[in-house]
Specification:
Blueprint lengths: L2 H40 L8 H38 L1
Helix pairs in contact: 1-2
């Protein structure tokens, strides 16, 4: 296994993990910012107010994006295993 193959595999894995986590983290970030703006506008300083909506949006995003996320992860895993089996022959 060459160094360039290891770098290619790792870059593929990092790119896929970034791509899979981006929708969930992005939605959570947007909800957090919206709630922070709401708290600043209304002067409500409740710390637990941010957790419940962010957890709900994160759970809904995972349920909604799960088929797409699974497809991306499985495609990458199959590609990596094929690449490794091709090199090891």
């Amino acid at each position: 296994m060459t160094e360039s193959l290891v770098i290619e595999i790792l870059s593929e894995v990092f790119y896929t993990s970034f791509l899979v986590l981006l929708p969930v983290l992005g939605l959570s970030l947007l909800v957090g910012v919206a709630i922070s703006i709401f708290q600043a506008a209304t002067s409500i300083q409740e710390m637990t107010l941010t957790f419940v909506p962010k957890i709900m949006v994160t759970a809904l995003a995972i349920v909604f994006f799960l088929p797409w996320m699974l497809d991306k992860v499985l495609t990458t895993a199959i590609k990596i295993f094929t690449m490794i089996s091709t090199v090891s022959k």
